[in-house]
Amino acid sequence: MGPMRYEHFHVSDGCKIAFQTSETLDTPMRNTIVLLVHGFSGSSAYFKKNFASLSAIAWTVAVDLRGHGESGRPDGGYHVARLAADLKELITYLRKCLPNQRLSVVPVGCSIGAAVLWTYVELFSDEDFIAMVFVDQAPLQDRSLFGDWNQSLAHRGCFDEASLLAAQKYWIEEPEMAFKDLVKDCLGYRYQPLPSDTVTPEQARADEEFFVGESRKCDTLWLARLLGDHTRYDHREACEMICVPVLVMMGTRSGCFSLQGMMETVQRVNKGRYDRGIQSEETAAQALEFDSGHWLFWEEPKRFHNQIAKLLMHVMTLAR
Q1: What is the pLDDT of residues 140-157, one digit of tens each?
Q2: pTM of the full predicted structure?
Q3: Quick count: other Cβ atoms within 10 Å of Cβ 145?
Q4: Domain membership of residue 226 as a residue range
């Protein structure tokens, strides 16, 4: 255990994938990994408030998705499925660091990171994981005729062809405004301020500078293409394929999704288990509300850590 350090490797199409790790890869001391997957236009640095506490309980790895952070900038690959394939290759790469031990992975997907994990399950199953955490993301951003998926469930600002095209145009033509609007929507104290908030103006400015700075590392034309794929991708049936324990974390002041939309993941996971005859309360999907926004890991880092630690203890107990 020590400070986080950057490492990288190259996936099958030659793209460099960077990630931060709390363990040295030549001599990792633990075989349980908390794998942090950031959201749209973010990076592994999003979790800098969480690294110290999480690395105290598990090998902590935070990836920079392709097109983000320190990872490569390919012309293509702006698809959620390609990001899921990259994640599969990362886990395979990490597994080689402990060739004689089983790697126990708990992925934590935030925003589009959750979509990447749902796609991972659809493509590869959930057999690489011992539990899964999804943070503030509904399984479909778009509205849909199927399942009566209406405006109360879809993304608040990007939910059909017209709003998607407008969002893509905005990210391409006015990126600085798009970056700042993202911060306004994703921090609870900005989206829905309360008298009880204690964030100072200086801290608010520092938060905005940090998140805008991470978004500036991205090619916004590439991001706009990724946004199109992400918005149209329906993950509801994929949620029904998950067998491992699931925790859904939701921000009550999220500018992106309603609680009702995010609860669909819990309902779908539990439906899939019921349909397969798996009805154990010990492994049923659970939801947890945070008094913060879309980036709840930033606004409530201690509670975020405590819930992941609690989940780890739970799955380890089940494994005995």
Answers
A1: 999 999 988 999 999 999
A2: 0.97
A3: 7
A4: 5-319
